[in-house]
Amino acid sequence: MSAYKLSNPIKNYEWGCKNSLNKLFGCSNPDNAPQAELWMGAHANGCSELQSNAMSLATYIETAPHKTLGEYTAQRYKALPFLFKVLAADAPLSIQVHPSKDKAEVGFRREDQIGLAITDAKRNYKDDNHKPELVYAITSYKAMNGFRPINHILNLFEELYLPSLHEELSAFQQSPNTEGLKAFFSKLLTLNDDKLSQAINELSHHFQRPDLSSMAKEALEYSQSFTQHFINDVGILSPLVLNTIELAPGEAMFLHAETPHAYVRGTALEIMANSDNVLRAGLTPKHIDVQELLDNTLFEPIEPENLKLNPALSDGRAHFPVPVDDFAFDILSVGQTQKVQHLRSAEILFCIDGEVVIETSETTVTLRAGESAFIPCSTFKYQYSGVGKLARAYN
To answer: Distances in Å between the alpha carbon of 318 and those of 127, 252, 338?
Structure first.
């Protein structure tokens, strides 16, 4: 069987970077538009094509799903179960929570039954799937991921005192637990415009303070950067509640369902379950359904030192473990020596840098930085050689 070089769509969202994909991967940008995401996969909203015949990847898979995906994947998922992206952020994305699989199924069915169109701005569930994610940094990559430990949140609000939130903070101090966190987060999300504006103004008075803890300084750096893009948005307060993190190139983290997070700035690879379900919590002009968001949020803090994934290293392969079956992710460091990879599912290979030759029993494909290939499961094995680095998406 063959390996197929892919042509991939680029999404021009406002928060995207105008030069990152061009600089790193040679993607043309004649209109100088913000290039936010390059999609690799078979998603209906942005499907890759086989360069050899311009057939969509989804159509190719549908012609023989058991051969292309493998028996297990075809029976369980009926389609390619992951979406692989290059994400280039020059401005923060919205703070998001993705539902669990069970809640996505219930919510999708409920909104279908009441006749809410998929395109309706108030629609929360675009499909019935969950959306766990892994992000792997290509450049320095800033983000927020999960709630801070409760004592960290309380310490920050005490150090960065906001008089307008005295009542809300006092209630949280009296219940410093997950229920208290949920109540406090709910109150922040439902602040009226005047009170939110006052709280943000009070926070801004701390921006230039020289006498702050390192945790407070980092939180305020995020908040201050958000004010350059948003006015009177509750997300400006979010770095006091959510973990802030900066991934170095080559580092990765996992984002669980029901966990609030936001990508802030940088270029990374992202792999996720094949879903478009997003519940927003700030840094956005779009619809925020507070009650649905709260019902789909797990109010369990994450220790900052537990955010980064520890890869398993073996013979030029870094495997990043994730607690889901929808996708798996490796980084392959390629030297001149040819190596053999056996397939257990369909794979998408993306060349991060260098030049790598992929050989199957029938085809030879050369990948340079920014190029990708689809390898059907029925290929059984492929060989790769050259000098460079490959990202490997499979399940």
So the answer is: 32, 11, 17
